[in-house]
Design a protein that fits this description.
about 325 residues, alpha/beta, 12 helices
Length: about 325
Amino acid sequence: MAIQWFPGHMHLTRKAIQERIKEIDVVIELLDARLPGSSANPMLAEITAAKPALKVLNKQDLADPERTALWLEHYNRQPGTRALGLDASMATPAKALVAACHELAPKRGGMTKPMRVLICGIPNVGKSTLINTLKGKRAAKTGDEAGVTKLEQRITIADDFYLYDTPGVLWPRIIVAKSGYNLAASGAIGRNAFDEQEVALELLDYLRQHYPTTLEERYKISGAASLTDEQLLDAIGRKRGGLLSGGKINLQKAAEVAIYDFRQSSLGRITLETPDEFAQWLAVGQKIDAERQIKKDAIEMARLIKFKKVPRPPRVPEDNAENSD
């Protein structure tokens, strides 16, 4: 089942960003270092394409450092783009963002040409925590679930440096199926928009292939790589108090435990995708989406013809059709 989540306030945020971008010098997009491809918003990329971009891989202290290096290299190769790894609670690296913005827009600065920066990203990626670190006090609300920030805020970082904070925003339709699961596992999608067991099974399937040792150490099981995702979820339920009467497993509780442990980094430093993996997932998603659009267009054309909104294509006579072969 594809996971989708685009509440009404996100539509308003999109419109607000489209208006604000006209006077912005640099765009900071905060990404989740555990899923840098899935947390990069294609809608934002389209809206902000003409502006210098600073990609910040936040929560790098929770991510696989080797994979973080791959993603930083990936984004730094893109034109007009810089990428940094960051833990938003660390004051010194956070200040490096100001310097990076000046490198991307060297002609901005001073009271006559103050730097105007838009910071955006998916829900629950840590924007408010980062802003509070930059400001040195509680300038923005923080929370551990999606949708805390609801309105745009302008925050003065320095006399000549203005930061515009926007609510976390996803995009209207997620075409990469794996991204939907990774976003749900990270907490970027509202809890009512997905099934915890389905998300946990997808998460465990990836972890057993790439991080089997972390599963074995956390849940005291052996041979994680050889187990199926269903067997792993069952084992987690048995190990973490998910037994029901009659020896049945409370799979819902097991799923919640697995997702919670990932979000809290109790499994260790994990990244759920590499640049190459994400490129493959994206290619598949784009192909499926293109096929879906062809079918949708055909259905719409048939509807228009049925109700005589457009003329029916002329019928080719049979003898002409034979001659055309």
